[in-house]
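Recall that a protein's primary structure is simply its ordered list of amino acids. Everything else, from secondary elements to tertiary packing, is in principle encoded there. The following example makes that idea concrete.
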Amino acid sequence: MTVTETDLARRVEELEAERDALELRLARREAAGQERVPAAVVRRLAAGENPVRVWREHRGMTQRALAAAANLSPPMMNEIEAGKKEGSIRTLLAIARALRVDLDDLVAWKTA
């Protein structure tokens, strides 16, 4: 049996289509556990708003509720949101956990 270039080309196309389908399925599985961020949240972050405040409001939490969930005092939470205090890594990690975001989501975006 002789394999022609046409047969090989067809088989290569079939294999590429199978690979593409597998990559798509993998991407969908990976994305299934990820939260989609609304455009309004992205716009606020891009505008330079305080990420803690943006995420807190997105989650529908009051400052007092977030402070309690992160085991912080309300005045400390207020100072962090107001930009008067940066907060330690431990503090920011507690806030990130309470907001169900990654620690790097609490870093302010650089604006030009």
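The first helix runs from residue 5 to 32. Residues 17 and 23 are 10 Å apart (CA to CA).
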